[in-house]
Amino acid sequence: MTDYKIPPAVEKAVVTRIYAQADEAQWPHLQDADRTRLYQEWTEDPEIGGRLLDFVEQRANIRPWLKDCPMKEYERARRGQGKYAKYVKRLAATLEQMVAATLGPDWEVIPGTTQQKPMRARIRKVGAEDEEQHFVAGTVANLKHLVWPAILDRSTGETWPWMICVVDPFRAPVTPEQKEEHRHMAEFLGVRVVYFNEM
Prior knowledge:
Helix content is 41%, strand content 17%. The chain has 199 residues and is α/β, with parallel strands linked by helices. Strands 1-2-3-4-5 form a five-stranded mixed sheet, sandwiched between helices. The longest helix is centred in the N-terminal third of the chain and has 17 residues, at 8-24. The radius of gyration is 19 Å and the shape is elongated. The mean pLDDT is 93.
């Protein structure tokens, strides 16, 4: 991706606008055709594509910039992570909130262990240094990315427990069939799958 010199004020205006529209459209649950339509609308919108045009050389570069920069970071930004988080009007649950909701308030994220792609950290019972485990969270669409760090750990002999937290949105719940597949996968890998119900 070309590193365009987009002024901070323009980036802020554009990203704030597309994030608000993505939130309204429930971006995480959109089909590819609906996302394509939104990208087209954003490209043609004078307040989005029109503002970017002076800085991305040509109209054909607007959509790739939107897709590879702010929208690639959208899910992390919704959860308060990354450079675009400040442009999200309505934040989704953070990793800490997901840990508390799925395991209870006596579990905490160990400071300094949070990582991205996928969003994960080491967690422990409050006051219990020897009860650490890995916690990774994301959508069912990204399940293979959630499982991969656990697979890598297992392949090198790592024995810390893994907790895979699948976001289970109210508007597009994880199906019973998917949960059954997850159960089989968890048994095979020796991990635990939990679900975070998100409104």
